[in-house]
Amino acid sequence: MHIDPKQFEHIQKEAATELAHIVTREDLERLRLKYFGRKEGVLTGALRSLKDLSEEEKKTVGHAVHTVKLYLEEALAKKERALIEAELHDQQRKEKIDVTAPGKKIPAGHLHPLTQLIDKACDIFIAMGFAVVEGPEVETERHNFDALNVPKDHPARDMQDTFWLDPAVAGPGMLLRTQTSSVQIRYMETHEPPFRIIAPGRVFRSEATDATHEAQFYQIEGLMVGKDVSLANAKAVLEVFFQRLLANKKISIRFRPSYFPFTEPSVEMDVTCFKCFGKKCAVCKRTGWLEVAGAGMVHPKVLENVGIDAREWQGFAFGAAPDRIAMTRYGIDDIRLMYGGDMRFLKQF
Amino acid sequence: MKVSYKWLQEYIAKKLPTPEKTAELLTMYTFEVEGVEKVKGDAVLDVKVLPNRAHDCLSHFGIARELAAILKTEAKRVTVKVKEQKKLKVNNSLKVAIQESELCARYAARVMYGVKIGPSPKWLTQRLEALGQRSINNVVDATNYVMLALGQPLHAFDLDAVAGHAITVRKARVGEKITTLDGDTVALAASDLVIADTEAPLAIAGIKGGKKAEVTAHTINIALEAATFDSVAVRKTSRRLNLRTESSMRFENGLSSLLPPEALDAVASLIVELAGGETAGGVLDVHAKLPSLQTALFTAEGVNKLLGTDIAEKEMLLTLKRLGFTTQKTAKGFLVTAPKERLDIEHQADIAEEIARMHGMMHITSVLPESTLIPAEQNNAIITTDNIRAACAALGLSEVYNRSFIGTRHMGYFHNRYASVVSVANPLSDDQKYLRPSLLFALLDNVTENFKHEKVVRLFEVGNTFALKEKRGVREQTMVAGIITTKEKGKDDGRGLFYEAKGITDALFEKLGIDDAWYDDYLPSPEYSDERFWHRGRTAVIKVGDATIGTVGEAAPALLHLYDIHERVAMFELDRAKLAELAQEKRAYQPIIKFPAVERDIAVVVPAETKIDRVQYVLEVAGGELLLDSDLFDIYEGEHLEATQKSLAFHLIFQSPTRTLTDAEVNDVFKKIAGALKSEEWDVRS
Description:
The structure holds two protein chains of two kinds. Chain A is of the alpha+beta class. Chain A has helices at 6-21, 25-36, 42-49, 55-94, 113-127, 141-144, 167-170, 181-190, 231-245, 300-305, 322-330, 343-346; strands at 131-132, 138-140, 174-176, 195-204, 216-226, 253-260, 263-272, 289-298, 314-320. Chain A folds into two domains: 6-94; 113-346, Bira Bifunctional Protein, Domain 2 (BirA Bifunctional Protein, domain 2, 2-Layer Sandwich), CATH 3.30.930.10. Chain A has a seven-stranded mixed beta sheet, with helices on both faces. Chain B folds into five domains: 2-70, 2-Layer Sandwich (Phenylalanyl-tRNA Synthetase, Chain B, domain 1); 84-287, Phenylalanyl-tRNA Synthetase, Chain B, domain 3 (3-Layer(bba) Sandwich), CATH 3.50.40; 295-361, Phenylalanyl-tRNA Synthetase, Chain B, domain 1, CATH 3.30.56; 380-582, Bira Bifunctional Protein, Domain 2 (BirA Bifunctional Protein, domain 2); 598-685, Ferrodoxin-fold anticodon-binding domain (Alpha-Beta Plaits), CATH 3.30.70. Chain B is elongated and about 130 Å long.
């Protein structure tokens, strides 16, 4: 038997031409079978017949067959990859959708604006070394008033209309705290100075409800006591706090004289209006300032009431109004929305 | 207090800035001015005097003294000398006795004869009217004018109407009444302090005069009163009678008993000027030991340390002088003596306030505190709360802040068995009469309201609830509650909602690192009529060990009816303190198994009342350590089954951390499981 090695060059040429014309994977498979099919495959047959050849021919013919085989295998694989890619690209073309159609609703919950604000406030103070503490909403008269230097039957009590609990069931002198300052007392009674705490929480005032008044609202109480903690320190700490809270370094604060029975001196604290940033708008009543907190140096009597030597220790306390800050920040015009549970409101935060 | 700009100018030599500028200065240095109103030839400032300065600043002189110090000058005090008719002795005309010296520290009186009652001159009526006062007659107007000038309330009686020409300061007698100058007849209580003659009360002390000795057009001789009444007594009577006057307002805040003589002389002089008459010689001045002027010690260093400032000692002393204080250098620092009106000077801090105000609070510059770097103590309750909130929001619940009050609206439904509910003594209204015993009441209200515009309601709240303790006192607990409901109908009989709520609590426990919570059958307890609250058949009590940490379930259908909710509602309420206690931040990593898992399914038919928990327990015990997990994927009731049966289908996952399991090994375990199920007399179909 004799095989002319040259004929394989011819086979390769023919296969290349055939391959060039193939456009489907079915045709490609047919072509693969034509050359590599187990029974009828041209190259399979040639390889099989190699064993009948002389040693000399095995070398030359074998080499020719293998060259074609390698060439074709590679060409077929390349063609297959190209056909698959073309098919997949084609799929993309067919699968075009309208991207302006609405996205699928993933049920997501929302945190209340006050939670978000208070959390942020806590983070800022924690970073300054303040511990966050809590106290009860139902308080004793002593913690809410007496120990804070607000004596019974004193007009200072009129500054805060108080909800009292039924003494027959709750015991005498039980009330809903009118201020988170009661937490100061509880904390100072049980800890040794120096102190750095904040106490966010719900407080209550017996006031008729309208767009700007709620019988309950929130306060963030702060207290820092040390050997030489001063009013100037209070200003700096509160300035940093508001700058971070409102993410604006241009925010400054301003003290005005005021009176709280538990601090001396006492100040009202204005912060640069964060609606207009001092340009004077309707929100700040054209003053450029918003009143958002009260502060002062802890009254020596308050320190003495909790057994702290006022000659040795001094410090500041403040109470900020997160409802007011949140309302101004988000442009909420009615405080009742904050305590109403309307999902159309809640979903916006 | 309404303050006349022109009047302030009378006390200050320096020309005042414009009324608007004056108002701004007062706001920044002393008191907030809430408004400036232009009136004919004057401006009226509405000054918000706070209770600590009511002693001295509910008066024009008090405000002028502040304003003068702001302008770096001093207010001048007007002193008057009363021309007395020496022949007429006040002792012969009137007697004064104080029965209640605790409640009346001082009672000073003068007597005037032959006054001519008539209208006040225009300057006076104009000034009073600008300040919101009504002009009565020259004598009464004079008393009001001097009160507005100096802050000491005054009263004039018709001397001839004072029976026995004797005035007694005493408590009212049982059943006593008085007709006030307004014409109202008021019943007095035995605790009320009155000014009486020998017959009847002439005035409610410090609050309001009476008709009996009213100064009228026919009055000729008068008695003038300048007294110091106890602040608490005046406050109590004024509150009880709901009678607040310019006088009561001043006494309530406390007035120094050093004030009466000056005011009494001033009013007598003014009356002579306005109504003529002669002033009897001498003053009836009854009082116990008079207080000394208030004092405090301070050092410049101490004040600067408190304020964080660097104010010069000289400036401090000058400020105090302008404010009417005197200072005296001592070994321990300066001894400061307050002007007689001031009752708020005790500590160095009080002096620091004066100095800070006049230095300008706005001029205090920020100084960051220097302190030891002690990291803040962590508060686990708050960290847990934050985690709970984040988890609830991630699970698709929106956070609500509801009010702490609930009303009487649904009391009937609960058979009035709100035995342990805490009531407010002075509620704003009936629907805010109680403190919430549970967060769920308000959440149900939220559902009713939101269903007006929403199809799906998913809310949660973290808040405090209140209950009475067994004996007396209030138990306050922070709770976490959630509520889910939808108008979209599911395929099942609504039980899916329960399992969704349970899925939420499960996920919450997982996030908090609580891995041993279990769900127990719910047995209604009588507490706030529990059985009328939760759905008997679809509620579970959540426990860790034997301790209950909360409840999850459907709301009782009758309760929903009450809230006008027509869909099923699932809800949960958990005790935050217990969650915080159980929450563990530590987690241990389990190595990922490298050998393949084999999955087999098994179905078992069990009696309908058999708990899935029980089936799973049997299955897992039999499966041993090669059964990694069993996952319930179908519950079937209905066709092909008896009505009392249900079919449960599980995916069983077999896997070993040390080797690839062979078919034979898996078959062995599977047979064991099937055997265990069968031995419970359950029908296994795989």
